[in-house]
Amino acid sequence: MHNPHSAFQFRHVVGERTFGFVDLADLMAKATPARSGDRLAGVAAESAEERAIAQMTLADVPLKRFLEEALVPYEEDEITRLILDDHDKNAFSLISHLTVGGFRDWLLSDLATSEVLTTLRPGVTPEMAAAVSKIMRNQDLILVAKKCHVKTAFRNTIGLPGHLSTRLQPNHPTDDLTGIAASMLDGLLYACGDAVIGINPATDNVQQATRLIKMMDEVIQHYEIPTQSCVLTHVTNTIECIEQGAPVDLVFQSIGGTQATNDSFGFNLATLAEAQAAALSLNRGTVGNNVMYFETGQGSALSANANHGLDQQTCEARAYAVARKFNPLLVNTVVGFIGPEYLYDGKEITRAGLEDHFCGKLLGLPMGCDVCYTNHAEADQNDMDNLLTLLGVAGCTFVMGIPGSDDIMLNYQTTSFHDALYARRVLGLKPAPEFDAWLAKMEIFKNNEQFTLNHKLPDAFHKSLNRMIGGRS
């Protein structure tokens, strides 16, 4: 007689009912907290009961299983090859005897100190990080991420404990230089911009990118700001900008967790290696040489039909293997940007943001988060306030700073300059130390310890502002 459960690699019996999961990918997907993208992909658990059973089953899976069973075939995917070929068996030996559930308990224990977690990083694969996150509560994700310290540097030092950096994002719908400059001044006066001054260009080509790069470089040099700039153009454009002599600080690229996703984005690992080498050759960093800036987001693999039947959070974690390979200054999960098809409401966005931050930090990345949502999502600014605060508690590396929290070029809602100031005030988090010293020198803060803004415009900005408004006082 045919056994209906013979096709299942994993089984869990509850009373008279047997729950079956076809393979590790199926088990991982069914164990994932509910989100619309997995429902869209047809991989989600059909009920809360099935999800709980999948999580219990996943907790019993040995971590070694993830080294034996590739979720995306080794022969078909260069990211799978990167993950398995670069895996550090010596680092892994610390946890090699554990199951996913045992790994969770160990991460939450006092044995997993910041120093031990730093040593462990090269032994953890993205799939292991994704698996353990699926059986963790939000507070677990926050507690462990808080213990993961990841320091990077270029013209300032990012990621030190007790610090929160910001990307100043002065986007403009026509790339108008005066409008961009006004946003930059506004952000700097709120103490934003220590992670990067980063522009998403409205017109995406080499000529326009070079124009924006030069403009930001002039501002940084003129005011001697200890920060770095980036135009978020395609990596191949940035390589061309460097070849033409543009003053490039950071190389940007959106990345995904499967080779097919990155093919759809128009690059591969070799492209990133070429770009990193080109940026390093400029030697523009003063306190460090982390020259890459990556952005990710749950749902990108599915939207490119490149998820190989995996859940979106596991695909997201695999993108962090790509990032880790190139020692980035910054990695940013743009958590609610793709839309409600992938993360439906404030609850799903909050959960995804905490998962991404946890997985990135556990794998050794300088993980920031664009706390954001699109206008057709079931979310509002109160949801973003909550996630911003939770991420601040969790030791998030950086968040966005955008005028009025409304990006008028990309048309989505995110965090504003004053949101970042709020987070620093309520949680006592300082900007990067070099940038903090510059804020004091420029008299932007009246009191750097209490984050009290100066009520009068700093003298150094008077002339610039007068020029911008045509000489009026």
UniProtKB/TrEMBL annotation:
Cellular localisation: Bacterial microcompartment
Cofactor detail note: Binds between the large and small subunits.
Entry binding sites for adenosylcob(III)alamin: 201, 253, 303, 409
Catalytic function, reaction form: ethanolamine = acetaldehyde + NH4(+)
Single GO cellular component term: cytosol
Principal cellular location given in the protein's record: other
Enzyme type, top EC level: lyase
Obligatory cofactor(s): adenosylcob(III)alamin
Pathway: Amine and polyamine degradation; ethanolamine degradation
Record Gene3D superfamilies: Aldolase class I, ethanolamine ammonia-lyase heavy chain domain like, lyase
Lyase among keywords: yes
Alphabetical keyword list: Bacterial microcompartment, Cobalamin, Cobalt, Lyase
GO molecular function: cobalamin binding; ethanolamine ammonia-lyase activity
Keyword match Lyase: yes
Alphabetized InterPro entries for the sequence: Aldolase_TIM, EutB, EutB_dom_2_sf, EutB_N_sf
A GO biological-process term: amino acid metabolic process
EC annotation from Swiss-Prot or TrEMBL: 4.3.1.7
Pfam families per the UniProt record, alphabetical: EutB
Record-listed substrate binding positions: 167-169, 200, 295, 370
Task performed by this protein: Catalyzes the deamination of various vicinal amino-alcohols to oxo compounds. Allows this organism to utilize ethanolamine as the sole source of nitrogen and carbon in the presence of vitamin B12.
UniProt family annotation: Belongs to the EutB family.
NCBIfam families in the cross-refs: PRK15067.1
Assembly information from the UniProt record: The basic unit is a heterodimer which dimerizes to form tetramers. The heterotetramers trimerize; 6 large subunits form a core ring with 6 small subunits projecting outwards.
Designated name of the protein: Ethanolamine ammonia-lyase large subunit
Organism for this UniProt entry: Marinomonas arctica
Gene assigned in the entry: eutB
